[in-house]
Structure formats: structure tokens, C-alpha cells
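Box 3.1 A note on notation
Throughout this textbook, protein chains are presented in two layers. The first layer is the amino acid sequence; the second is a C-alpha cell string describing backbone geometry. Keep the layers aligned when reading.
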Amino acid sequence: MYVGSLYVWRNTHGRDHPSTIKKRFLSVFLMSFVSATVVYLFTDKLYFGYEVTYWSLMGIRLSGLVQATILPLFLTMVLFLGPVSLHYNEGLYQRFFDLKMWLYCLTNVVWLRNHVIAPFFEEFTFRACMLPILVPCFGSKNSVILCPFFFGIAHLHLLNEKLAHGAKFKAAILQSLFQFAYTTVFGAYSTYLFLRTGHVAAPVIVHAFCNHMGFPDFGQLFTIERPKQSVLMVCFVAGLVMWMLLLKPLTEPQIYNNTLYWPTT
């Protein structure tokens, strides 16, 4: 339904056209409302023996919110230490101090879609609305594996758009399969964050950051001369190792006052 709602409009423009973005925003807003209604109708207040509120089921609560907006983002920035270091090496982070750039971004519908609309509505639908229904049936840990496949499959519709805009079939298939793979992996990480923190804010902020960074450009490393290249390679490896070491301690449910999802497994 979520993906199908994007195609109810007759549209001759590409996905980045302002008209397309505005129509699709309306579609996902309505589908998110429908999804939230389903959660309200088909979940029990006695969730795993706990009496819970409708909002806390969907990860919308104040307790632990500050931690949920900071720690998962920090954890993800550690994972992206290599790409972040690449950006720093190129001086790209100077743009963050440019007021004109921010004013442009906040009035640019493509930027708003990638950094605000898509992260919020995708996480709200695929995490906040889907997991309260999946977890009672499959458990938290199994849901970390199952839920991402819905998220990855939801991105396969972009294959149709690639073909419609003249992409070669083989190239479009390979790109779509690659996109399915990394969105599924991200979906698992996002699901894990939601269940461990009990906050939808955590995956939303991380999603926005990942959309900003994009998929790491490993090939760019080989265009940089030594010794900088060696330092940057160490950053890539160190980021992955530190992320693996910090993943569990920085997402302990107790930090976020989360007694709903993860302790039940």
C-alpha cells in the first residue's frame, strides 16, 4: 500500500520533479495515517503482559528521548568514520557553516524529501507501525531479520522508474538488486535501533544522516596520494571495528528507559 500510493497520480515527470515530490508526500502522509490506524485497531494495550499506551508502542514518548536522538546518531557517525574523514579531507564540512546553503536546503523539495520526509515517513511506517504487529508474532530478534525485507522490497519499485527513463535493462536490474541489498541491511540496523531504544526518533535521525552521507565511495580512496590514503583506510577499518564494539553498550534498553520490546526476548 505504501509503495502503491506513490503511483496513484498520473505523472509525466521524474521522481525529483517538485510536482512529483509534493504528490507523493500527500500519498505517504495518508498511508502513514492508515498504518497508524491499523496499529490502533489491531494491537492490545496489554502488550507482553505490560499495560502500554498507543504512542509508546510506536516509539513516541518523552522518557529517554534525548538519549535516543544523540547516541544512535553518534554510533552511526562512528561507523561512517571513513566517509566522514573523506569529506573532511575534501573540505566539504565547511558548507555546514554557510547560512545561505541551509536556506537553500530548507526551500529545496529534493533536499527536504531526502533528509526530512523520506526518513520520517519510511521509519514511521516500516518501524513504528510494522514492528508493534510483527514482534508479538515473531519476537524481537526474528523481527530484526524479517522487517528489513519489507523495507528492501519497497525500494524495488525504483526499477520501473529507471527503465522508464531510458536505463538499460541489465544495468537497471543490477542497480536495483544492489539497492535492495543495502536498504535491507540498513533496515535491519534501523529495526535494531527501534527495538533497543524504544524510540522511533532514533532510526529517523540515523536514516536522515545515512541519506546525507550516501553509500560509501570506496573507490575514491584510490585517488588520494599517500600518506593520506593510508590514514583514511585506517579510519574506514577503525570505524567499523569501533561500531561493532559500541553497538550493544550504546543501545542498552536501560539507557533509554525501554522496558517494552527487547527485554521480552
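Residues 68 and 202 are 5 Å apart (CA to CA). The first strand starts at residue 46 and ends at 47.
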